[in-house]
Design brief:
Blueprint (H helix, E strand, L loop, with lengths): L7 E5 L3 H13 L3 E6 L2 H11 L3 E5 L9 H12 L5 E5 L4 H9 L6 E5 L6 H12 L3 E3 L1 H10 L1 H4 L4 H11 L4 H8 L3 H14 L7 H13 L2
């Protein structure tokens, strides 16, 4: 799931060099940064003024440099659950990631470590996926959050936990099969078992996958 069209973007990052670098990168890929701001208040105002296709924001911003950017993003999604948000963070902030994934219905959100921005194609792919309503979580964030929440995972077999972790990274069934060196049919069976063990009601398959991931990433 991805959007392959130019996007209007509100960018929030307090570091001037990184902000300008990201804006230039996004513009080179054909997107339009309609506002680039350096604090959470500016983020909220810019979204209200421009109604962007997606928000890209840092977690820690002035004045407190704690979770202002994340709080602003969650508030914006509370007002408009359809607003896609891609959050960037220097470190794995488990509580922050969980709050982001709890916002709205858990779709149209992403949480990436800033190191991931160095892989330009991966970053732009994540942007497109989130804008299309996907859920993208940095693999390192996935690993730390899953380690933190071992108890809920006890219902799953080791292989099912591996499949769930790869689902949380946004992998397709084919990609999971290649990674685990199994057939796609086997992956489909594991995913079916995961959804059953999580007591997720019958619904559109993509939505159930998102719910499965969100269930285990929430704090």
């Amino acid at each position: 799931m991805r959007v392959d069209r130019p996007l209007s973007i509100v960018l929030a990052e307090d570091g001037v060099l990184l902000r300008e670098g990201l804006a230039g990168l996004l513009n080179r890929f054909g997107h339009r940064v309609v506002a680039a701001v350096g604090d959470a208040g500016g983020l909220v105002e810019a979204v209200r003024a421009h109604a962007p296709d997606i928000v890209v924001t840092d977690v820690r911003m002035p004045p407190g440099f704690t979770d202002e950017g994340l709080r602003a993003a969650v508030a914006l999604r509370s007002a408009d659950p359809r607003l896609p948000v891609l959050v960037l963070s220097q470190y794995v902030e488990q509580t922050y990631a969980s709050e982001l994934l709890d916002s709205g219905d858990g779709t149209g959100v992403g949480y990436l470590l800033k190191d991931r921005v160095g892989d330009v194609e991966e970053f732009v792919d994540a942007l497109h996926s989130v804008a299309a309503g996907g859920t993208v979580v940095d693999p390192e964030v996935v690993r730390q959050l899953l380690r933190r929440r071992r108890d809920p995972l006890q219902r799953l077999s080791p292989r099912e936990r591996e499949v769930l972790a790869l689902m949380a990274e946004g992998r397709s069934n084919a990609a999971i099969a290649r990674t685990l060196v199994v057939s796609e049919a086997a992956v489909g069976k594991h995913i079916g078992n995961i959804l059953t063990k999580l007591d997720l009601p019958p619904a559109e398959e993509d939505h159930r996958r998102v719910l499965a991931v969100v269930t285990y990433l929430r704090g």
